[in-house]
Amino acid sequence: MRTHNPAHRLAAVAVLALVATSAAACGGDDKSASDDSSSATPSASTGSDNTPVLTEDQLSQVVLAPENFPGDWTQAPSEDDDSDGPGCLGEVSAITHDIEKSARVAYDYTYGDAGIPLITSSASSFDDHDALVAAFDHVQDVLAGCTTVTGPDSDGTEYDLTLDYSDELTSDVVDDQINLDLTGTITTQGDDATISESITLVRMGPNVLTTAMVDLGDPTMVAAADDYAQIALDRLVSVVLGETPDSTVGPEVA
Length: 254
Fold this sequence. Notes:
The chain is an alpha+beta fold.
């Protein structure tokens, strides 16, 4: 349904901005959403470092769960967005587009009636470990030279964002990591809003975990993204080790 309330419309666009930027960093399409290989049985496939290729059932245990959220959060499946992002994120999309996922699970968690802040938690596995590593390296090279994200997306929304990138690892069990903080303005239908996004992607072997948060206005609220990213990483490690993830509760955001 079309919304005529500028705040609600901008909140919806901010959500789409998060999905687009996080999808650009992950890239690719699922091999099959209903592939019979997705089951509770651990995969026999492994990456070159012997980290297993996780099944869809295992990935569903990796992503953030409702019990990880305090207060008024709502869970909904997150749609994969294969559209090109604005600015340098479009180049990231081009790099990752042809890398096919073997499985993917993703959920959006929105807060309160306005649906903002929003946290997206997704986990994907890839059969071609070497192609994933090469793409991750290429994406890191592009992002290292990208300090702004400007221009329109396919829907005509204009972006004017500052991008802060690092590849600092937050755990010694992680093989690769991408940390993005984006702040600035988006303009849609003549309305401007300040948005803040924080996106963390970690790679363990042939598996990629993404935790991302977006909010309107005050950028300090997305600091909670680091806490939720750590909870998700702990869940990933537990699943890789064949253990049941803890039900750690993240911080309040209001």
